[in-house]
Design a protein that fits this description.
mainly alpha; 2 domains; 57% helix; 4% strand; elongated
Length: 303
């Protein structure tokens, strides 16, 4: 069983250009099911049955797994069995007999313009780390980048003359992210000063744009913790994640009159349906504005 899983993982890396984080989750969670199956005396993928799968799903629910985690595991197993069938490693796909639970559609939560302004002003520009953090936050918001795209940036992907950066998105698809003057100026200042100081701590020079205090590429976990600290510092009480900057980028563009196709291109979405969720967010915000501001829209006209 492990050999088939190893072959599938190599396929994901070599032929599908899957993200390392995706591959890691996939490998770990398929292996979790494999361990369960072997504990039930099933030693081959061909021997897995729908009944065994339902038993495993029941165990996940009993252990407190949320629906989203269960749905993801079913999806991973379905994709894995598709690979096994395609390579003649099994003759049937037992996952086809399993129905995934329905998930409610959750709208992404953008940050308000006021919250964005507070966060952008939070880093201390007198320190190398502060210059770096300001440049990262500006880039996230200005370019609608994923945090993985941001932290994977190398120096040769930055063009400050044109005000743009080349990023590698999901599936190793390249796109150009346009950045405005504030982001360009913040990045230029960091590269000229803060990065030089951070790079001096490393015995070997890194091509990464954003460095930690040891002169090496900054990790996602470290940046996420830093962002949480800034949010607490400026008084934002709800959880703030790096991906909220991407949500805010899309929502604020639509609020400002950008067309859906342009936002789709800027986000690097293959399908327009992926981008359309932001139109719902934008409409919800407009509705809230009307309810708060229009005298005939209030529940209590005298309020």
């Amino acid at each position: 069983m492990q050999d088939a899983l190893d072959r599938c993982v190599k396929h994901l890396i070599a032929e599908r250009n899957a993200w390392p984080h995706t591959v890691s989750n996939y490998c770990r969670e398929i292996a979790q099911f494999m361990t369960f199956a072997q504990g039930q005396g099933v030693m081959a993928w061909e021997a897995v049955t729908p009944a065994l799968l339902r038993q495993w799903l029941a165990q996940l629910y009993n252990q407190g797994y949320v629906k989203a985690s269960v749905v993801r595991r079913i999806s991973e197993l379905r994709a894995f069995y598709t690979y096994l069938r395609r390579h003649d490693l099994v003759t049937t796909n037992p996952v086809q007999a399993i129905s995934a639970p329905k998930l409610p559609q959750r709208l992404p939560r953008p940050l308000s313009r006021e919250e964005i302004d507070l966060l952008l002003a939070a880093p201390d520009a007198a320190t190398p780390q502060g210059q770096r953090d300001r440049a990262m936050l500006e880039l996230l918001y200005a370019g609608g980048l994923r945090v993985s795209e941001l932290l994977a940036l190398d120096l040769n992907q930055v063009d400050l003359t044109q005000g743009q950066v080349r990023v590698l998105g999901k599936g190793a698809k390249e796109r150009v992210a346009l950045i405005g003057r504030p982001a360009s100026e913040a990045l230029r200042g960091y590269l000229a000063d803060g990065r030089v100081k951070l790079a001096g701590a490393a015995p070997r020079k890194s091509p990464a744009v954003f460095l930690n205090r040891f002169g090496q590429r900054l990790s996602v976990s470290m940046f996420t913790r830093t962002l949480s600290d800034y949010a607490a510092e400026v008084g934002i009480e709800h959880k703030v994640t790096p991906h909220m900057f991407r949500h805010s980028f899309a929502t604020h563009l639509l609020d400002g009159g950008a067309d859906l196709r342009s936002v789709q291109e800027l986000l690097g979405h293959e399908q327009a349906s992926t981008t359309q969720i932001y139109t719902q967010v934008s409409q919800n915000q407009l509705r809230e504005t009307v309810l708060k501001a229009h005298p005939r829209a209030r529940k209590d006209p005298t309020a």
